[in-house]
Fold these 2 entries.
Entry 1:
Amino acid sequence: MTKRVPRKPAGSHENQPLLFDLPASKTVEPKVRLIERPLWTEDKARLIQRYLFYFVLVTRHGTYLDGFAGPQDPANPDTWAARLVLESEPRWLRHFYFFEKSNAGESALLGLRDAQPSRPKRTISIQKGDFNAEVLKLLQSETIKPREATFCLLDQRTFECRWETVKALAQYKTPKIELFYFLPNLWLDRALSALKDRAVFNGWWGRPDDFHSIREMNQTRRMLLVLERFRSELGYLSAKAWPILERRGSGHIMYYMIHATDHPAAPLLMGRAYRAVVAPSRRDPLEQLVLACVEGQLPN
Ligand SMILES: C[S@@+](CC[C@H](N)C(=O)[O-])C[C@H]1O[C@@H](n2cnc3c(N)ncnc32)[C@H](O)[C@@H]1O
């Protein structure tokens, strides 16, 4: 699977002339193993898991949709959102709908489903195919009830999730399905320049006339425009962009996770989840208390 390779920022030291010319190296640089667990990937899955922990504490039930559900890094299942969500305690989410296009992703999901305990009883559906088509069938079936608290992860690589799909999810019920939408940032300019087929942009962005302005827009304005579209076009009460850095300590925002919700408390819970993941050593007393209750080990 191809990894996203971050573009060097224009102001990077590596793009600037050196004070002294360095002599040509006589040695061949030893090859090292590539970094196996980039922090941004790891952080993302844990952020989703942690947020859903808070989510079920409020809702006591719920349905989870994952549009691009196969593992990004199959060698590191601990960074796989589907796995962390399914295995998260307390197991109060009742219905799971996973979508995945690739054979490898589908078989990973089937293996994950088969490894789940039979209790509590939960439905875990795995749909192979294009999420954009398959999720419409799910929505048309009206299986998800209006009062069902529903969260949908849209963890595309770059342009795979069509705007029409996001719209269909947003229009399905009130309060709306909560969305966690992946917006590429650091490599988006390059991806747009490399696009051979304009239809890909049109499908992803949903407004063909915006192509040139989006290419020329700076990263922050683009993110703010997406937030505004979630609020004004899709009607979400709140849309916030949670930055995921290239690596810990780096100033480069690889991508944003856009959290769109109708629940006023939900952005606060996302903030709490984000902080908890950034500082994992700080144990959250709420989590400890809840787990103790669930396991019947209430503190005196
Ligand atoms: C960025 S990865 C998802 C990472 C995953 N959320 C994780 O936590 O590791 C994107 C996945 O979407 C799948 N995919 C790409 N296009 C798709 C489409 N149109 N419909 C469904 N799945 C798709 C890819 O095969 C890949 O497994």
Entry 2:
Amino acid sequence: MTSTEDIIGRADANDIEAILAVTNTDVDSVLHAVKDNADCLYTWDYSKGARPQLEKLYEKAKLGQWNGETDLPWDTVVDPLQEATQLYSQAAGLDQMIDFTGTGLESWGEKEWIEFNLESQAWTMSQFMHGEQGALVCTAKIVETVPWIDAKYYAATQVMDEARHVEVFAKYLDTKLDRRYPVNAHLRMLLDDIVEDSRWDMTYLGMQIMVEGLALAAFGFMYQQTEEPLLKKLLRYVMSDEARHVAFGVLSLREVYADLTQAELRERQEFAFEAALRMRDRFLQQEVWERMGADVSKVLPVIFDNEDRREFQHLLFTKIVPNCKKLGLLDGGDGWLRKRFEEINVIQYEDWIDTAEEVDSFAIQRELEGEDNPLVAR
Ligand SMILES: [Fe+2]
Ligand SMILES: [Fe+2]
């Protein structure tokens, strides 16, 4: 039987020292090579619409295209310090929620917590940008590896979507926040694992279900929180694409996973659990604390153990858990993934709406205007 150590390289999923030991050691390198180990599949079966739901998504995606340069109000003046200060006035510092006695953070006042908010925003947007490049690469791989023509067509639109997402996050970081962070080591390990896997459905599972499912929830929180008009519109547009992407994963994999053996299903469950832990661990924002001069060996264990923060973090799984359930991954075989999701306290979202059902609620106006296209309306 595969152990937690086999899956993520440590026996205890909550071993904070082991989590902190994973760091990005080549932050100055510009390129990062990964073997993608997959066969490129041609199909000579060009029957468009053999999978009607994928065809519909493809038509919606064509209507939902937008231009990151011209559709967003880049002339908006953004003052990141003012944004960070406003956030502080709404929510105060983490010290209002967590007791930092003995960590060195007792001396932090308003100035430091506002600075932390500023760095945290840049870190979060940077990880979004790196994750978006992961999505760009993975979707290009799906175009090559998926056997169905409807999925190749749809994935091709997603490649364009993801290029646009990388572009707008990079532009926001460079022109509005004026600082950025390298890729978090947990996130990079996850992206590497997804790209390295030779099986085409694992690209979908890792990227469309896990990474993009979490991104959709995370973008939603930031969208609710921010009053900054450029960022709000940027996130609104990105979310309209992401909802289609997650729905693409759910619709494609449901068909495949219905026919898997118990052993094959278990491999997918383990992969989903690994991805869940890696994403959870990156949200410790280790690099932000380091840049702020905090002693991470003292601060992060206190944060990691704080119940209120964990509760909030679990909300990031509101899309992932119902989508895994819809794919039959929660209860497939002996229900292995259900037990793991119980252990990390995210199982309570299992009956929330899945993304294949809610995709239209994210649509932007031009997609909705396509309702008179019979392929979209059905
Ligand atoms: Fe994206
Ligand atoms: Fe996406």
